[in-house]
Amino acid sequence: MKTVMEPKRTNTTFAEQPLTEKTEKKPVALDVKHLNIYYGENHAVKDVNFSIDQNTVTALIGPSGCGKSTFLRSINRMNDLIPGARSTGEIQYDDVNLIGDDINVVALRKEIGMVFQKPNPFPKSIYNNIVHALKFNGIRSKKKLDGIVEESLRKAALWDEVKDRLHESALSLSGGQQQRLCIARTLAMKPNILLLDEPASALDPISNAKIEDLIMGLKKEYTIVIVTHNMHQASRISDKTAFFLNGVLVEFDKTDKIFTNPSKKDTEDYITGRFG
Ligand SMILES: Nc1ncnc2c1ncn2[C@@H]1O[C@H](COP(=O)(O)OP(=O)(O)OP(=O)(O)O)[C@@H](O)[C@H]1O
Question: What would the CATH number be for the domain defined by 14-271?
Answer without folding.
Answer: 3.40.50.300
